[in-house]
Write a structure and sequence with these properties.
By secondary structure, the protein is of the alpha+beta class. It has 2 domains: 190 residues, Endonuclease Chain A (Endonuclease, Chain A, 2-Layer Sandwich); 187 residues, Endonuclease, Chain A (2-Layer Sandwich), CATH 3.30.870. It is 40% helix and 23% strand. The chain has 14 helices and 17 strands. The two termini are 37 Å apart.
Length: 412
């Protein structure tokens, strides 16, 4: 059996052979994604939590079908909670076009009552021809559409990247492994044990050579994965290490923010040693647990001098950070991982980390603009004086989240 690359064995490592382009919202991501799919020659690997066929999402599905009809091997994996079963008409169209698709961990009769069903496929990855990677927080979902709230007044605030370089091979490997493991589970459930064993062998043997094509000055970057086997805490450790090394500034934009004790302490310690720490967080009510369970952790952060800005115009869905963009050691990350227990302890996630001044400055400018023009800074006195009903709801949600983690055997 061939050995895995060091990037797979060690979780991640940096290389200096990348080009990484920042994309904001589906408005920038989808045209680039569709262009890449329309130019695909051999294969497309696609994973997403939500695949919604409303509005702009349909154009992505149609690009997948066009590629499959040209003979491009096209594999799509969607999550069993985020997407569920594909709409019947779209499932038929995808199948007729030759798109191979699978649903990750579909829910059974008991739904999410079974704790192991909380381990979701939350990463958003697309590899085209083994040469380019799309990675970020953006689902296949129209910027102005929400499955629960309908038409939005302003676009969802989110980011992704388009990357080339050796990290593309790492992404392709992990996607290939998941594809074959899902096949093995399907075969085993159908009591096709020889086929299941063959699929497991294919997953173990998945290894992809890096295809590097430079179109500009090289950038230092890495793909950081989170799963429930080898990479349980890679993303959180990457955050903590970068925050611990911060000298001037930390800016984090995160949709569902409920960091554990170690990450909270890292932010507090950074603020106390004079680093300006700014958080851009969800300002709109979306889900009960995520909205209310986050607020009890704000107090200690505000007391330490951390600035909290709540995004107001629409739903904030970003999972990005930039540290010391204007210093000599810039660090930035764009990905799918929230800073909450669902992402950091249970879900499959993927982030790209970039150590490049131009990239970090670009991301910083967009986040600062959002805080200045679309954010409401939280006043510590207003936070402390929030109504009793809200404080009770916050504590109830926080307690329920802790209880849910205890049920899964996790401490946070």
């Amino acid at each position: 059996m061939r050995r895995k690359s060091s990037a797979t064995l060690r979780g991640f490592e940096f290389a200096d052979d990348h080009q990484v382009r920042l994309l904001q919202g589906a408005e920038e991501l989808f045209p680039a994604l569709i262009q890449a799919m329309d130019a695909a020659l051999s294969d497309i690997q696609f994973e997403t939590y939500i695949f919604d066929f409303t509005g702009a999402g349909a154009a992505v599905a149609e690009a997948l079908m066009r590629a499959a009809q040209r003979g491009v091997r096209t594999q799509l994996v969607v999550d069993g909670v985020g997407t569920g079963a594909l709409p019947h008409d779209w499932a038929q169209r995808l199948q007729a076009a030759g798109v191979q698709y699978r649903v990750y961990s579909p829910l059974g009769p008991l739904g999410l009552l079974l704790p192991h069903r909380w381990r979701r496929l939350h990463r958003k990855l697309c590899v085209v021809d083994g040469r380019m990677l799309f990675c970020g927080g953006i689902n296949v979902l129209d910027d102005f559409h929400d499955p629960n709230y309908g038409t939005l007044d302003a676009p969802r605030f989110d980011f992704a990247v388009l990357a080339t370089g050796s990290l593309v091979a790492s992404a392709s490997e992990t996607m290939d492994q998941l594809w074959w493991r899902m096949q093995a589970v399907r075969d085993a459930r159908q009591r096709r044990l020889p086929e299941a064993l063959q699929a497991l062998r294919a997953a173990s043997a998945a290894q992809h050579a890096a295809r590097v094509a430079q179109a500009g000055p090289p950038m230092r970057a890495a793909l950081v994965l989170r799963d429930n086997v080898r990479n349980r805490s890679r993303i959180e450790k990457a955050y903590r290490k970068a925050i611990g090394a911060a000298r001037h500034e930390v800016i984090i934009a995160n949709a569902y923010f409920m960091p554990g004790g170690k990450l909270r302490r890292a932010l507090v310690m950074a603020a106390r040693r004079g680093v300006r720490v700014r958080l851009l967080l969800q300002g709109r009510y979306e889900y009960f647990m995520q909205y209310h369970a986050a607020r009890p952790v704000y107090g200690a952060l505000l007391e330490a001098g951390v600035e909290i800005h709540e995004y107001a115009p629409s739903f904030l869905h970003a999972k990005v950070a930039v540290i010391d963009a204007l210093g000599d050691k810039p660090w930035a990350t764009v990905g799918s991982s929230n800073l909450d227990p669902l992402s950091l302890l249970l879900a499959r996630e993927a982030n790209v980390v970039v150590e490049d001044a131009a990239f970090a400055t670009d991301l910083r400018q967009r986040l600062v603009h959002a805080m200045q023009h679309a954010g409401r800074r939280m006043d510590p006195a207003r936070y402390a004086g929030r109504p009793l009903r809200q404080r009770v709801l916050d504590r109830v949600a926080f307690g329920l989240m802790r209880l849910a983690l205890w049920v899964t055997g996790n401490r946070y």
